[in-house]
Amino acid sequence: MKVTMRDVAKAAGVSPASVSFALRGDPRIKPETAQRIRDIANRMNYSVNATAKSLRSGRTGVIEAAVFQLDRPFYSQLLAGISNAALEHGVQAVAQQISTGKIGHEKSILEKVANQFCDGVILSAGGLSNAEIMELSKGKPVVLLDDQSYQGPFDSVFTPCEDGAEAAVTHLFDMGCQNIGLVGAEFRPFDQALRSMRVVDRRLIGCLRAFERHGLKLAESAVVPLDDWDTDDAYEAVSKTISEGRFTFDGLFCMTDAVAFGVLRALREHGIRVPDDVAVIGFDGVHAGEYVTPSLSTIAVNIDEIARQSVSILCRRINEGRHGAPAMPKHVTVGYEVVVRESSARIS
């Protein structure tokens, strides 16, 4: 016999309404009570009748997470966190890849949101304006990851780009590095970078601040640009820089851990010792950094917190049932930790 919501309520000693609230992550139920109800529902193999629920509420119980590349370590770890957080709120999360620079993909995803595919979306929308997001979402809740507008009209969760990058470069200076290079940045003057909210420019701002604090200016020759923050591209770019005799660095800040993995490989193949000859630090804090050789120093972003905040904010907006961007959008920047491992730990 199929287990009903009333069966779960009886086993938990609560009302059916409390079970319903707990399974959809309604804040009216205390977190510890909601978790107990979910545990009981799982043990009893209770499942929500999704079709009936959707007809009653006008919701599907599905949220979408749309990110640039599903195969990147940062995004795969983030999506796992979003999936777990969604389950804690009683909803399901599905993932969608947005190819970098292909605006049509981003528009298509938001059009699906408007057509009842899901109740809301967590979106990396680097190529869409606020007006386009407003129009295409048709009032469905949207949470932006690293919003590219300053204090924009949508809820957003940010990585600590400026402060994290400044801490990374400062760490290299502290390790005694005197010729520090950046891999994956685009060189531009400080005032130009300040006018941009792109992730790459926000991280560049942090680097420039660190150089300035040490009485130095970042030279254009100290930047190794990449078309994409890709491991293969980083490997090729640094290998080329070394082969052409332009590699003069004793410290490298890589814009992501994925970039750092390619850099470490290139340095090893060219006989450059890490950290003896060159200290290397990445940005993100993905799990794989612990297991490469040498293990990777990094700016470890609280990826699980990005997932929890994004899902929590989105589910709150869905439950509010509001249309359009919120009157008072929430903007959250998560924390970070400087994790020092073998790739930069020089012994004086």
What does this structure look like?
- Pfam families: LacI, Peripla_BP_3.
- It comes from Bifidobacterium callitrichos.
- InterPro entries: HTH_LacI, LacI/GalR-like_sensor, Lambda_DNA-bd_dom_sf, Peripla_BP_I.
- The chain has 348 residues and is an alpha/beta fold.
- It folds into 3 domains: 5-48, no CATH class; 59-159 and 303-335, Response regulator (Rossmann fold); 161-301, Rossmann fold (3-Layer(aba) Sandwich), CATH 3.40.50.2300.
- Helix content is 43%, strand content 15%.
- It has 13 helices and 12 strands.
- The chain has a 6-stranded parallel sheet, sandwiched between helices. The protein has a 6-stranded mixed sheet with strand order 7-6-8-9-10-12, sandwiched between helices.
- Helix 5 links the parallel strand 1 and strand 2.
- Helix 6 (103-114) runs parallel beside helix 7 and helix 8 (161-174) runs parallel beside helix 10.
- The model has no long low-confidence stretch (mean pLDDT 87).
Looking at this protein, list some descriptive labels.
about 350 residues; alpha/beta; Rossmann fold; 3 domains; six-stranded parallel beta sheet; six-stranded mixed beta sheet; 12 strands
Q: Helical proportion?
A: 40-55%
**Distance N terminus to C terminus?**
70 Å
Q: Which CATH architecture of the largest domain is right?
A: 3-Layer(aba) Sandwich
Mean pLDDT comes to 87
What amount of the residues lies in strands?
A: 5-15%
CATH H-level superfamily title of the largest domain: Response regulator
Strand order of the largest sheet: 2-1-3-4-5-11
Quickly count the domains: 3
The CATH class assignment of the largest domain is Alpha Beta
Number of strands: 12
Helix and strand content put the structural class at alpha/beta
Q: What's the CATH topology label of the largest domain?
A: Rossmann fold
